[in-house]
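Hi W., the flavin mononucleotide complex you wanted:
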Amino acid sequence: MPPKIIALLGSPRVGGNTAHLLEQAILGATEAGCDVEKVVVPFLKFRPCMEIFHCVDHDTCKIQDDMIPFYDKFREMDGLIVAAPVMTMGIPGALKSFMDRFQVYYMAKYERHQSFIPKEHRDIRKTLFISIGGMNVPNDFEGSKLTMHAFCDIIDCPYWGEVLRNDMDTIKDITTRPEVMQAAYDRAFEMGTLIKKALEG
Ligand SMILES: Cc1cc2nc3c(=O)[nH]c(=O)nc-3n(C[C@H](O)[C@H](O)[C@H](O)COP(=O)(O)O)c2cc1C
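Structure:
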């Protein structure tokens, strides 16, 4: 079976710059032999974590919304691609709320000490982070990366690689930067190839 990759778009602009980079990454992972499912997170209908704490002793969330299928999908996936613009120096709100709802995984792993992901599978899984920011400041990705590292630990899909490009307010159109588009393709191709090889043993 081909490796399963989930590709999250954190931007609401489906034809925007983040989306262009994600398409390159999806192409790279697909050409490496993976099945890729793209999810436009801002279009999902779900609530933020309400701290009901049902997940302290249950394997899912009590809030019945679009998040529910992702608790199983994130167990099955072999790799993750997250593509997000910087918003207010961090992960955009909808995507951040999506990540927060993985408190279900946090409780299993850190409170009950029974991660949903067996160690052998964790050792194979990998996450690629793609991000762009408008501003030309040195710490543009710090907030997002802190969140990404925490999220990758919680879901047991280790942070493996990144493609980052700030100064988008000047660049405007990412397709004028073929080296960044190529990097998104190459990193995803590399990640997909590594996962495929590891699964084949
Ligand atoms: C609500 C909002 C907040 C933003 N905050 C930041 C920020 O803190 N730092 C930054 O570098 N860019 C910020 N930006 C700019 C975006 O990161 C930039 O325009 C990016 O290229 C948008 O990607 P897209 O084409 O996929 O929408 C912000 C944009 C929006 C809409």
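Residues 11, 13, 16-19, 85-89, 132-135, 140, 166, 168 surround flavin mononucleotide (CB under 6 Å).

W.
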